[in-house]
Amino acid sequence: MPVRAEVWRSFYQDSMVLMRLAAELREHPGVRQAAALMGTPANRQLLAAAGLAVAELQDAAPGDLMLAVDAETEGVVRAALEAARTFFDRRHREREATGRALPRTLESALRVLPDANLAVVSVPGAHATLEAMSALRRGLHVFLFSDNVALDEEVELKRFAASRGLLCMGPDCGTAYLGGVGLGFANTVPRGRVGCVAASGTGLQAVASHLATLGEGISQGVGVGGRDLSDPVGGAMTKLGLELLVADPDTRVIVLISKPPAPAVMAELETIIRAIAKPVVVCCLGAGPGAGAAGHRVATLEEAAAAAAALARGASWSARAFTDAAGVRARLARQAPDRRRRGRLLGLYTGGTLAHEARVLLEPLLGAIGSEAAAEAERIHRILDLGADEFTRGRPHPMIDPSERAARIREAGARPEVSVLLVDLVLGRAAHPDPARPLAAAVRDARAAAAQDARALAVVASVVGTERDPQGLSSQIAALEAAGVEVFPSNAQASRFAGLLVKPELEQAMLVGAR
Amino acid sequence: MSWDTLLGRPLRVINIGLELFAQELEADGVTVVHVDWRPPAGGPNVAALLARLADDDLES
After folding, report:
1. Under an 8 A CB cutoff, do B13 and A118 touch?
2. Which of A7, A99, A198, A388 is the most exposed place for a label (fewest CB within 10 A)?
3. What is the Rg, in whole angstroms, of the alpha carbon atoms belonging to chain B?
C-alpha cells in the first residue's frame, strides 16, 4: 500500500482551503487517506499518528505545505497528487481573473482601504495576537476568530482595546453581527432592534435564529470570546459591548449571553445593568434564578429570545417547558408507547454552549451527566461537546466536518445501553453546506443496527438556523424527520424531551398544567 | 466613548486569515480587502519584535 508525500516549500494556505483540498483528494476512488497540512511540528505528529509519516516530511517548516496520500496503487497516488496541483492552479486562475493583487500586510491593506473600521483576524493562534494588536494600534475594531491565544495575551489585547474605545471581539470569537453584517459562523437574520453581547458563538447564533423565527432581528451582536467574563479578563469587552448597545439608536432591547461569569465580574455587571435605561435580558446559562438580580433573568437561549422579542413589543411573556404540549404527548406515545424506555442518554453536540445548556437543564432532572468519551462512562448519561479541543485536534470543527460525529452516532447504534441520542445541528455561513444529510445517514444506520438487536434508538434534535441560511431551515429539518429524528424548535425543548424519554416519571412535572 | 467609526457607517473590512470570510463578506456586499497572509519567517517572536519597532515609528 503506497504512501507518498510531497513538501511544497513556502506555500502557505489557510486551514479551510486545505480542508477542502483534503476532502477532494479523499473523494478519489482508491484513496484510503489524504492529508494537506502546513508543516508545523503538531501537524507532523498528526501525520505520524495517522501512519502517513514518510521521510520527505521530516524537515517541513511551518510555511511549507505537506501533502500525503495513502492509496491502493501508485497510479492512484500520482493522480491524487496531480489533482492537488490542479486544485491550486484553479485557485490561482480564479484570483488572477479578479485582476487584483492582494496586499501582504495589514499596512499595505490600509493603503488600499484607508477608511477601514474593522479587522477580521483568523490566522493561527501563535500569530493572532500580533495581527490583532497591529490592527488595534491603527484604530480598527477587531473580530478575532483565532483560538489558541494565551490568556495573558487576551488580557493585554483587551486592556489596550478598551483604553482606545475599540472592540476586540475574541480571541476564539465564533460569531458577531455589526450593522446587520454577520461575521464568522453567522446565520442570515434580519436587522432589527435586539442587540446582543455574547461570550458564546453558538449561543448568539441560537438567540439570533430564534429572534428571526419570532419576526424580530438583530441590531448588533457583539461577540466577546468565552473567557471575557473570567476574573483575569474582567468582562472588558462585555462592558464595552454594553456601552455600544446603549449608544446604538437601533437597539431597543439588550441581551447578555454567557455561561456564569466569575462572581466579582457578575457583581460589576449587575451595577452596570441597573444603570441602563433599555431593558436588559440576562441569560447566564446555569447561573440559577438570581432573585433580586439586575435585568430580566432567563434560563435558556430560547427564553432569552422570547423575552427580548416580548420586551421589544411591550408584550408579556412567560417561560414554558414545551411550546406544544399536546404534540409532545403524541411524540412520547410514538417514541415510548409503554413509557418504559429508560436506558442511557448520549448527547453528541457540535455547539459548545448548546451542550452546556443541555447539561444545565438535565442534571437537576437526571443526576450527574458525564462528559468523557471513555468507554467506562457507559453506565451514566453523557453529553459530549465534539467542538472541544480534545475532539478537534488536527481536524476541522464538527460544524464544518460532520464525519467524527457521524462515526460516533453509528457506534452508539451498536451500544445496547444507549437508548436516546440528543444532537444539535447548526446552520449558517461557514458551516457544512448540507449537514442534515450526513447526520440523517448516520442516524439511519444507527437505528437499523439497534433494530437488528430488537432495540429502539430514539434520536432527538434541534436545528439552529433560519430559512435564509444557505442550507435552509425547513429542508434541513425535513431531512432529519425523514430519518425518524424527533426535531424540536429549540435545544431546551429537545433536551427536556430526551430527559422525558430516559426518565418517564418526569412527564407529570413537565406536562401537567401545560396546554 | 465615541462609536463614530462603527455606528451609522458601513463596515469596511480588512480580512487577515481565512479567505472564506472575505468571500462571504463580499457576497454580503461589504467592502473588504483580503490580506495574503503568510507566517513570518523566523516565527512569531521575531515578528513581534519587528512589529513593535514599526509601531514605535507609528506613534512617534
Report:
1. yes
2. A99
3. 16
| This prediction's pTM | 0.93
With a cut of 90, say whether residue A175 has pLDDT above it: yes
Per-residue pLDDT at A429 exceeds 80: yes
In a domain, B32, yes or no: yes
Q: Quick one: fold of A3-97?
A: Alpha-Beta Plaits (3.30.70)
Strand boundaries in A152-294, DSSP class E? 168-169, 175-178, 181-184, 191-198, 218-223, 253-258, 280-284
Query: Mean per-residue pLDDT for A184-204?
Result: 97
Residue A378 DSSP class? G
Q: Is B49 on the interface with A (CB under 8 A)?
A: no
State the residue range of the domain holding B32.
12-59
Q: What is the pLDDT of residues A357-389, one digit of tens each?
A: 999 999 999 998 998 776 555 578 999 999 987
Q: Is residue B28 part of a domain?
A: yes
Taking one residue from A and the other from B, the number of pairs with CB-CB distance under 8 angstroms is 151
Taking CB atoms and an 8 Å cutoff, what residues of chain A touch B3?
165, 244, 247-248
CATH of the structural domain A325-511, one choice from 3.40.50.261, 1.10.1200.10, 3.30.750.200, 3.40.50.720: 3.40.50.261
Q: Which residues contact A494 (CB under 8 A, 6 or more apart)?
A: A358, A422, A424, A460, A461, A462, A486, A487, A488
**Average pLDDT rounded to a whole number, residues A87-113:** 91
